[in-house]
Automatic annotation (TrEMBL):
Keyword Kinase: no
Annotated localization: Cytoplasm, Cytoskeleton, Microtubule organizing center, Centrosome
CDD domains the record matches: epsilon_tubulin
Protein name: Tubulin epsilon chain
Organism from which the protein derives: Pongo abelii (Sumatran orangutan)
Gene Ontology molecular function terms on file: GTP binding
GO BP of this protein: microtubule-based process
Lineage top rank: taxon: Eukaryota
């Protein structure tokens, strides 16, 4: 059994991380009722004898003594991490695996990346090495961060290069939360653009998620609850209710419920690595099968059901409807419509009481409505995990390498250019040592090149076979040149 380490960076990253660990504990508690430390729990937790001083207290088997998350918590403000350490999960985190500062990054990528990156590089490396030493077979680092703030975007992407240099054989999966157009951080387009260049160069797979999609999903759940549609009810102390038991006002963004969706995405993504099933999918298989070209490693995710049973009592969807939902626009965690765009590859990660025949039948049913690149018409990767999420009979996570991600990048570039043309707030970045205007122009060039790659793929939709073969040859040559210039971006490891 392999292990993974979660690195949660910045306010957003730590809040999502906290929700993830809470749900992970609930899930394993529901499955492992005898309290035995097994391989499933070891994938994300260490078993520690707290009576032993130092690092010698790890227990590889037997009864669970004290579980410690395989996590590194980083934030340049103390607030969120301190809140976690004073909350119900305080004993789950090793206090030696935390890095905090007081001043914060001031919503400035340059401060997070250049200032705090240099200042805390040795400490970060030490914590990462310590986490790796506690693993028998480290397979993946999961980085959770936001793109709009200073610490998440700056230090979060600085961390990627550190991981690449120190652990080149370990996969780097990044969950990146993109700001909405109404984001209250005015410099978020700068931060997101500069962070994108680092994601392009140093990540193996990126799961882009935007706040607006999450907010829209929660608003729909609120609407269903308020209307009483289909017998929908909210459970007491739900993530979509306030502490007083009433529904959160729609004008207040329910970040807890939004974080819950992202946490469930990560739980489903790692389910095959943690539990047995008739058709398991390892994390390295996701990168191997879904990323045909190294620079096109952005995977659009959709999840059904979108809530946990601890939130809302909604009658379960029929199995076939669950598959249809996963490809609908309303269930995407990004403002995207994959059915009307081009698929490079797609993974379906199913949990619960589902048969392989059900999986194959639904793929055949949906195939005619989905357009795949001609050279990968059978570009499906599937997994079946026998353990469903808590409170559900089955669930489905779909990961699509699809050109529908392009509008998100185009919108980001447009928002960036509106600020950059006026040179607004630029001096806050240029006054940081090591930051020059070339950092911005290179970031724009990097994103423009990525958008162009998706443009070229879209042009192949109705291309005759001869022209298509010429295009594939040219595209492969470009990717090979890119890989030679950037050896860390080998498509397969």
């Amino acid at each position: 059994m392999t292990q993974s380490v979660v690195v949660q960076v910045g306010q957003c990253g730590n809040q999502i991380g906290c929700c993830f660990w809470d749900l992970a504990l609930r899930e394993h508690a529901a499955v492992n009722q005898k309290g035995i430390y097994d391989e499933a729990i070891s994938s994300f937790f260490r078993n520690v004898d707290t009576r032993v001083v130092g690092d010698g207290g790890s227990i590889s088997k037997g009864k669970i003594c004290s579980l410690k998350a395989r996590a590194v918590l980083i934030d340049m403000e103390e607030g969120v991490v301190n809140e976690i350490l004073q909350g119900p999960l305080r004993d789950v985190f090793d206090t030696k695996q935390l890095i905090t500062d007081i001043s914060g990054s001031g919503n400035n990528w340059a401060v997070g990346h250049k200032v705090f990156g240099s200042l805390y590089q040795d400490q970060i490396l030490e914590k990462l090495r310590k986490s790796a030493e506690h693993c028998d077979c480290l397979q993946c680092f999961f980085i959770i961060h936001s793109m709009g703030g200073g610490t998440g975007s700056g230090l979060g992407t600085f961390l990627l290069k550190v991981l690449e240099d120190e652990f080149p054989e370990v996969y780097r999966f990044v969950t990146s939360i993109y700001p909405s157009g109404e984001d209250d951080v005015i410099t978020s387009p700068y931060n997101s653009m500069l962070a994108m260049k680092e994601l392009n160069e140093h990540a193996d797979c990126v799961l882009p998620i935007d706040n607006q999609s999450l907010f829209d999903i929660i608003s729909k759940i609120d609407l269903m609850v308020n209307s009483g549609k289909l017998g929908t009810t909210v459970k007491p102390n739900s993530l979509v209710t306030s502490s007083s038991g009433t529904l959160k006002k729609r004008h207040k963004k329910p970040f807890d419920a939004m974080n819950n969706i992202v946490a469930n995405l990560l739980l489903n993504l790692t389910s095959s690595a943690r539990f047995e099933g008739s058709l398991n999918m390892d994390l390295n298989e996701i990168s191997m099968n879904l990323v045909p070209f190294p620079q096109l490693h952005y995977l659009v995710s959709s999840l059904t059901p979108l809530y946990t049973l601890t939130d809302v009592n909604i009658p379960p969807r029929r199995l076939d409807q669950m598959f249809s939902d996963a490809f609908s626009k309303d269930h995407q965690l990004l403002q995207a419509d994959p059915k009307h765009s081009l698929y490079l590859a797609c993974a379906l990660m199913v949990r619960g009481n589902v048969q392989i025949s059900d999986l194959r039948r639904n793929i055949e049913r949906l195939k005619p409505s989905l357009q795949f690149v001609s050279w990968n018409q059978e570009g499906w990767k599937t997994s079946l995990c026998s353990v469903p999420p808590v409170g559900h009979s089955h669930s489905l996570l779909a990961l699509a390498n699809n050109t529908c991600v392009k509008p998100t990048f185009m919108e980001l570039k447009e928002r960036f250019m509106r600020l950059y043309k006026k040179k607004a707030h630029l001096h806050h970045y240029l006054q940081v040592e090591g930051v020059e205007k070339s950092c911005f122009t290179e970031a724009v060039s990097s994103l423009s090149a990525l958008i162009q790659e998706y443009d070229q793929l879209d042009t192949t939709k109705n291309m005759p076979n001869l022209e298509l073969r010429k295009y594939i040859s040219r595209f492969s040559a470009v990717s090979l040149t890119y890989t030679r210039c950037n050896p860390q971006h080998l498509p397969f490891k």
